[in-house]
Amino acid sequence: MLVREWSEPLLLGGQVLLILLLAYLLQRLVARALGRLGERYRLPSEFLLPIRVGSRWFILGGALIMVLERFGVSATVMWTAFSGFVAVAAVAFFAIWSVLSNLFCAVLILLVAPFRLGDVVEIIDSADKPGVKGRVTDINMLYTTLEETNEQGETALVQVPNSLFFQKAVRRWRGTELSAFNAHPPFEK
């Protein structure tokens, strides 16, 4: 009698543990495959990190859905909740499109590498107006930080939205080509 009472909860617990174990192993396998892919094709770790995190969330989300199904949660209820979350996410996407644009452009900057840390870049605004020119000191997910030097030799940090590098023409000097930067100071008249 006692065996019958506990057999069903123990079986359910075993199934849940098996689902979680398989999800963990799958996540580790995907992380290892991404690591090898990054080494083989020399992809920057900044590019692989979002893919690794996204795959982890996808696998754990799938495992959570399977666990909830084992506990009797209806697929219709899960689909309704999921579609509600997607609708809210779509509204949020349109609300923060500028931020997402800068995030996507940051990924492109890291992948395509039109410039790197230490390079001198100039964003050409128009023919009659000088643009922003300086040494790249930081590239983060929203801004690229440039160090400008004025005529008196004073420096200032300028944060340029990443999307601007894809909307304007950009002139670049590699970090080793310092003479080109020194010959053309940022605030030429």
Automatic annotation (TrEMBL):
<dbReference type="GO" id="GO:0005886">
    <property type="term" value="C:plasma membrane"/>
</dbReference>
<dbReference type="InterPro" id="IPR045275">
    <property type="entry name" value="MscS_archaea/bacteria_type"/>
</dbReference>
<feature type="transmembrane region" description="Helical">
    <location>
        <begin position="80"/>
        <end position="113"/>
    </location>
</feature>
<comment type="subunit">
    <text>Homoheptamer.</text>
</comment>
<keyword id="KW-0997">Cell inner membrane</keyword>
<keyword id="KW-0472">Membrane</keyword>
<dbReference type="InterPro" id="IPR023408">
    <property type="entry name" value="MscS_beta-dom_sf"/>
</dbReference>
<feature type="transmembrane region" description="Helical">
    <location>
        <begin position="6"/>
        <end position="26"/>
    </location>
</feature>
<feature type="transmembrane region" description="Helical">
    <location>
        <begin position="47"/>
        <end position="68"/>
    </location>
</feature>
<keyword id="KW-0406">Ion transport</keyword>
<feature type="domain" description="Mechanosensitive ion channel MscS">
    <location>
        <begin position="99"/>
        <end position="171"/>
    </location>
</feature>
<keyword id="KW-0407">Ion channel</keyword>
<dbReference type="Pfam" id="PF00924">
    <property type="entry name" value="MS_channel_2nd"/>
</dbReference>
<comment type="similarity">
    <text>Belongs to the MscS (TC 1.A.23) family.</text>
</comment>
<keyword id="KW-1133">Transmembrane helix</keyword>
<dbReference type="GO" id="GO:0008381">
    <property type="term" value="F:mechanosensitive monoatomic ion channel activity"/>
</dbReference>
<keyword id="KW-0812">Transmembrane</keyword>
<comment type="function">
    <text>Mechanosensitive channel that participates in the regulation of osmotic pressure changes within the cell, opening in response to stretch forces in the membrane lipid bilayer, without the need for other proteins. Contributes to normal resistance to hypoosmotic shock. Forms an ion channel of 1.0 nanosiemens conductance with a slight preference for anions.</text>
</comment>
<keyword id="KW-0813">Transport</keyword>
<dbReference type="InterPro" id="IPR006685">
    <property type="entry name" value="MscS_channel_2nd"/>
</dbReference>
<protein>
    <recommendedName>
        <fullName>Small-conductance mechanosensitive channel</fullName>
    </recommendedName>
</protein>
<keyword id="KW-1003">Cell membrane</keyword>
<dbReference type="InterPro" id="IPR010920">
    <property type="entry name" value="LSM_dom_sf"/>
</dbReference>
